[in-house]
Amino acid sequence: MKEKRNEFLIHGIPASPGIAIGTALVIRKAEFFIEERNITQDEVASELARLNDAIQLTKKQILSLQNRVQTILTEKDAQIFDAHLLVLDDKMLMDEVENTVGKELKNVDFVFNRTAQRYIATISKMPDPYLRERAQDIRDVAERIIKNLQSKTYSILDRLPGQRIIVAHDVTPSDTATIEKENVQAFATEVGGKTSHTAIMARSMQIPAVVGAQNLFLDKIHNGDLLIVDGYLGIIVVNPQPNTLKIYADKETETEKYYSGFLKESRLWPETLDGFRIQLAANIQGPEGVPDAKRYGAAGIGLFRTEYLFINAKELPTEEKQFSIYSKIASDMEGHQVVIRTFDLGGDKLSEVITPFNEPNPFLGFRAIRLFLEYRHFMVTQLKAILRASAFGNVKIMFPMISGCEELDQLLEILAECKAELRQSGLPFDENIQVGIMVEIPSAAILAEELAQKVDFFSIGTNDLVQYTLAVDRTNEKVAYLYQPLHPAVLRLMKNVVDAAKKRRIWVSVCGEMASEPRFTPILLGLGIHELSMSPSAIGPIRRLARRMRMFEVEKIAATALKTSDPKDAMRLSEEYLNNIAPDIMSMSFK
Ligand code: PEP
Ligand code: MG
Hints:
The structure is a single chain. The chain is an alpha/beta fold. It folds into 3 domains: 8-31 and 158-257, Glucose Oxidase, domain 1, CATH 3.50.30.10; 41-149, Orthogonal Bundle (Enzyme I, Chain A, domain 2); 274-589, Phosphoenolpyruvate-binding domains (TIM Barrel, Alpha-Beta Barrel), CATH 3.20.20.60. 47% of the residues lie in helices and 14% in strands. It has 23 helices and 16 strands. The chain has helices at 44-72, 75-78, 80-88, 91-104, 108-124, 129-149, 173-178, 197-204, 242-263, 290-295, 319-332, 369-374, 376-389, 405-424, 442-446, 448-452, 462-470, 488-503, 521-527, 539-546, 551-563, 567-581, 583-589, and strands at 8-11, 13-16, 19-27, 164-168, 184-189, 209-211, 226-230, 235-238, 279-284, 300-305, 337-341, 394-399, 434-439, 457-460, 507-510, 531-534. It has an 8-stranded mixed β-sheet with strand order 1-8-7-3-4-5-6-2. Strand 10 (300-305), helix 11 and strand 11 (337-341) form a beta-alpha-beta unit. Helix 13 packs across helix 14 (405-424) and helix 22 packs across helix 23. Bound molecules: phosphoenolpyruvate and magnesium ion (MG). Phosphoenolpyruvate (PEP) is lined by residues 200, 303, 305, 344, 440, 461-464, 511-512.
């Protein structure tokens, strides 16, 4: 008989709004899959044959990966896999596994994992940094071998057994890029923050999510448990009792009604009561985001995160392929702006082929334009595809992760060369295409005035700007309490950017997650931001809010917020104002 379990709550970070009631599918980390099993003497040979097959398969996979990396990147980059191949040839490790299986009569997965983990632990403690790095190679290879031993596919998210709430240690952006959306009712993860890309993807797919539920909930939730995921408050209810289910079912109906109400307002101008009109635009990850952008009344695409086009691809999409995607979006948007951001891979958006590097600090490492300035042909292919698409609509180019003028100059030079090539081949493009940059590194915000002389617009990437200004990893739930978008240091940097833009008469947008949070809207508008770009479904509440504000009131709030030394004071000011003008939005957004 199934054990009857009591209802209990697990708290995490609310990452994507909505309520889901459903059955848990618990995905454990690879090492948790390994069971310890006794085998008979007769089974030893077949267990060792399994190990041999898994090693051969792993070798084939690594060689093929190395090959692809060599073709796409450089020979030097491909060499990192030599170290992986050496692990496979490590006789000491493999002999020890073989002997132990025969001696202890245990299944080979268990013995291999235990032995590999011991090697990793010993090597990680060695004083020589070169040797310490080898521990990571062994870890990578061991994970592959175990997956192959167990014939596990890389992501079970690709083949869900029906509608489920995904409960996992982590769900990566590459998982979310291939996920079967119809079957995912919600995500609940142990790690992650509000602006990690998993959370951003969940919001964009309109899937409720709670992330960063730290207290080891994988041990507390079982496969098949009934769960409620409350993406508004960041709560997971395990084994809810009938009265809790009723409360949440009512809440679900109420929120559905509330959100569908915004669709009726999607044609209204986002204009303040005293006549200031702002732009509300949509952030998309691919062409599939365009219908939602239009349905929710976006004035254009403010951020197209193109890296999602090949986060799981085995190679770089060709110029033709990219051109067909970009030009289709441009023409589907019928003259409304489409800001295409060049690839921003790296950080928490990793691709097995393009970013196969193990970096100690990926957010401070080889990311976005840093990668593409080295692999210039990527940048050229993409820029040519974007330029050609500009003949089909109102396309703009945006460069991410700019830290200073020199980098931007290099990019503008490449862009000029791409234009010259297209001219020579007689391919049409918009000669006056606007070029902008993400302002998301504090140095760029400080140098805004110099940068403003070189571009047509700024888009403030608050997700990264907050992370880099406050030195708080945006994906790390342990420091999530320090991730404060209203921190005066962040606000003052934003003010510097707006002032520089004003002086140089260029427009400025915010495309980080801050743009979609009603609590921040008065301060962003009060600072003088012209455009807010967000997941399409977040546009409704912000439009309604903007239409109830007065510019002179929010300017006052922003001015006071800039002088505060405590982010809580800025938040209090904003909330007091919102409680007055928009109690409906306040009560629904933070229920
Ligand atoms: C940002 O940093 O705010 C941003 C919009 O870019 P991303 O979230 O893709 O890093
Ligand atoms: Mg960013």
